Amino acid sequence: MQQKELIEWIQLINTDGIGPIGFYKLLAKFGSAHEALQNLQSKQPIFAYKDAQYELEKAHRQNVLILTRNDEKYPFNLAQLNDAPPVLYVKGNADLLNYPAMISVVGSRSASISGQKIASKLSFDLTENEVIIVSGMARGIDTAAHKGALLAQNKQGPTIAVLGTGVDVPYPSENQRLYEQIIHQGVVISELPLGTTAQPQNFPRRNRIISALSAGTLVVEASINSGSLITARLALEQGKDIFAVPGSPLDGRSMGANKLIKEGAILTETADDILQVLSLTQNQQIKDFISTDLFANTLDKAPKIDNIPPQSKTPEHENADLLNLITPQGVELDELLRNSGMDFTETMLKITELELEGKIKRINGVIFITDTK
């Protein structure tokens, strides 16, 4: 697409009152964004050309790729939606967006430690088996899923984050480092203009993108009224498989997932429960995809991260600090929690990461080092 036409697409989709469906109706009626804008201009204020041009300039400066639905790299699965984003902002390895095997992982923002551990472990195991994890980088289950995926494949596992903010606005702010890791190893996308901050109405919108990209959606801990069930419903409407991890009927965070299982979702306890559903045809597509240059050298294709403050601790440093607190004789979990200096949730997540890396093991509440290299 020529630059002028791209600017006009940005103008049209950012004009007040024009959503994706309205955009495509105007395109069909007038034949081009240019003609649609000419017609609208006499009826209502339109998004200024200079502002759309500036948006494009900002994207270039920030190494953000802007894809339209007509572009070859635009996600094929997403393009099947009648309300697919006309314009998609991409930061990272855009080739991953058409990978043939993806699973979306969604769940509670206030997830239990157990729920986060399950999400992380399932995501790790799926990524090890060449399935890419898609999630929304929110607190709780989303964060755990991305972290599990990033740890796979010798800490080079790719993952896809779909934001409910601009692609240049990490949210929540505490996930800044996670955001940078995902860009480095995978890709972050958004349909929202650059600089868009967190607004409640934008998060349900992004759920359709999360579900559309994937072959199926996995729900780990979700209340009856959670956004995760909206994502599951959207996935069902899109003809996708629904997977759910069962939980205690006494925990409100499990009620949504348990309800999905009662309604026919695939009860999921291990990654094998998901892998068995993926078809042999899809497995062959994965092999074909990996054999091309599209999937090779993901880290070389991703933009280099050079804006991390020197004083910032990487997850490896934090995990090393935690390892230093564990004696050869083992340490009680309660003692480790007291001495770590981190809050309970963060400490437990780091413990889970170290377990996934095979560096520690837990036996009856005592933690031992297993990797002495």
Defining key terms:
373 residues; alpha/beta; Rossmann fold; Arc Repressor Mutant, subunit A; 3 domains; 9-stranded mixed beta sheet; 17 helices
Percent helix: 40-55%
Uncertain stretches: 293-314
Largest sheet at a glance? 9 strands, mixed
Number of DSSP helices? 17
Structural class: alpha/beta
**Tally of structural domains:** 3
- Assembly state here? single chain
Placed side by side, the strands forming the largest sheet appear as: 1-2-6-5-4-3-7-8-9
Task: Identify the CATH architecture of the largest domain.
Answer: 3-Layer(aba) Sandwich
CATH class of the largest domain, named Alpha Beta
Number of DSSP strands?
12
CA-based shape:
elongated
The sequence of SSEs as H and E is HHHHEHEEHEHEHEHEHEHEHHHHEHHEE
Task: Predict the CATH topology of the largest domain.
Answer: Rossmann fold
Radius of gyration: 22 Å
Which whole number gives the mean pLDDT?
A: 86
| Residue share in β-strands | 5-15%
Describe this protein's structure.
This protein has 373 residues and is an alpha/beta fold. It folds into 3 domains: 61 residues, no CATH class; 207 residues, 3-Layer(aba) Sandwich (Rossmann fold), CATH 3.40.50.450; 55 residues, Winged helix-like DNA-binding domain superfamily/Winged helix DNA-binding domain (Arc Repressor Mutant, subunit A). α10 links the parallel β7 and β8. It is elongated and about 75 Å long. About 6% of the residues have low confidence.
